[in-house]
Amino acid sequence: MIAISAAAWYTVDSFPKEDHEMKIAELFKKKQQNMRENQPVTIAFLGDSVTQGCFECYNLLDGGIETVFDYPNAYSTRVREVLNLLYPRVQVNIVNSGISGDNAPGGLKRLQRDVLDYHPDLVVVSYGLNDSTRGLEAMGNYTAALEEIFATLEKEGIEFIFLTQNFMCEEDSPHLNSDTLKRIAANVRRTQNEGVLKAYFETAKSLATAHGGRVCDLYAMWEKMSAAGVSTTDLLSNYINHPIREYHRYVAVKLVEEFLS
Q: In the chain, which stretches have pLDDT less than 70?
């Protein structure tokens, strides 16, 4: 497996930004300058297993599959660490509403309970990995759900960012040690290599900007790495679709860049 230090992720150039400034940057600034007169900042993250903080997968005795949950290494936790470094006076409340196996329609169903009820100042939405495995014919369910999520956040006056995700496996990995994992990987690999995941993200990006949201496009970086000869499958902790822990630090830095732009 390729060894990459956390620091290595910090040197990548920023992607183009939308032309409106984010209000959350002003909230950080005001709280840092006067912590007694300004409220803490709350950021909610709505997504799937990558958002939740899932990494390796393993076989259960009953034949099922389980994943390793590691919240301290999830990118939402890393976001708070970066913000605490930049704004030591600011209490940052993180709401991690990622759920393993979830998709955009699932996120819509729990938007009120898992996001809006916490009255966030900013919401980061990230879906596509699970949705795309259903094929292009199911994209309508994905776009309809995201459309309603984005429209609701826009109506509520809540800033939001759509985060495009990592590549899924491009090739078979010898590290997969069960027929079940190999079967899952085969389906995921087709989704990745046939451009289905990219098509989902392109549609989601357009929807987000149409509703006044921002886009943090990390999928574009994976395209660059793949084109440059990087074995992107070795950057997945489960060799299917969960990126390695070090990568979550990079996600955090890119999101904070977006917050402050």
A: 1-20
